[in-house]
Design brief:
The protein is an alpha+beta fold and 193 residues long. The chain has two domains: 108 residues, no CATH class; 54 residues, Orthogonal Bundle (DNA Binding (I), subunit A), CATH 1.10.30.50. Helices cover 16% and strands 24% of the residues. The strands form four sheets. The protein has a five-stranded mixed sheet with strand order 2-1-7-3-4. The radius of gyration is 23 Å and the shape is elongated. The two termini are 31 Å apart.
């Protein structure tokens, strides 16, 4: 099944073996062929052997492996590759979305301080959109549904509310913190936080 070529299922490590990206097998194969990366032949918890392209093509395909078909037979898809020359861990700001806003605010209503369960809170625009408020880190907070309904299209001051924390854009964090194993690939676990 060659559609696997374009799924983001390959974890990229810097040369210090720190996770810094996720890419597709197509990208990994191109980088392996040009010696930009080396794939890890992972044998469970027993060993992780860096393997160059010429040797990788000869590896047997195991039952648990992703694979693609080629004119010369099936080839194993690497799940983890290591960059040859790059050692930094890039920094990145979390994307603005409800999940990251929830994380920034610690799952607490920013007006009452009450810890909220999923579904008990929603996004409040401090300056309402009806008054030109934008959907940004600096203008949005998590609020209990009933508090947000009571506030409606008013400012916190007009609604008799006070923000516990001024909303701010989160600091940059190492990209390693933001990488998620959404496909549940066991080979990634030793490298993700």
């Amino acid at each position: 099944m060659n559609s696997i070529l374009h799924k983001s299922i390959v974890l990229v490590l810097n040369r210090n073996w720190q996770a810094i990206n996720i890419q597709t097998p197509a990208e990994a194969f191109c980088q392996m062929a040009t010696d930009v990366v080396t794939a890890l032949d992972i044998q469970g918890n027993e060993s992780m052997v860096p393997t160059r392209w010429e040797d990788w093509k000869q590896l047997p395909v195991r039952d648990r492996d992703f694979q693609i078909g080629t004119a010369h037979g099936p080839i194993r898809v690497p799940t983890v590759v290591v960059l040859s020359r790059f050692s930094k861990v890039p920094l990145k700001r979390p994307k603005f979305n409800a999940r990251n806003l929830w994380a920034r605010d610690g799952g607490r209503c920013q007006y009452t301080g009450r810890e909220l369960r999923p579904g008990e809170g929603n996004i409040d625009h401090v300056v309402p959109r009806s008054r030109g408020g934008r959907t940004t880190w600096e203008n949005c907070v998590i609020a209990a549904r009933e508090v947000n309904s009571r506030k409606a299209d008013r400012t916190p001051e007009e609604a008799g509310l006070r923000l516990l924390n001024q909303p701010r854009r989160p600091r940059e964090v190492p990209v390693t913190v933001l990488l998620k194993n959404v496909h549940g690939i066991p080979d990634w676990e030793p490298f993700l936080l």
